[in-house]
Structure prediction request, 90 residues.
Amino acid sequence: MPFRRADDVLFELFEDRAVLLDPAGTELLTLNPMGTLVWQALDEAHEASTLAERLLPEVRGVTGEQLQHDIQAFLLELEDLGLVVDDGTG
Prediction:
């Protein structure tokens, strides 16, 4: 399923990290550099497999399959927090 950023999430980039404020304004989340790369890619809807393929050249020591699995788990966590949404086209 393709995910994209939720419309009402506020975020700022600080060096190689994104800081997100949830829609309710109660949770502040700082992403690590890899999470920030995924977040930046979500300005358009993408599936975990597409993101993994796109980001694999930027990471070392991980297979494409493992990266896809990790990105999918990360996206589901962000969805639970209301930070990303299913784009509904998948």
Observations:
- Residues 3-84 form a domain with the Outer Surface Protein A; domain 3 fold (CATH 3.90.930.60).
- The chain has a mean pLDDT of 91.
- The two ends are 5 Å apart (CA to CA).
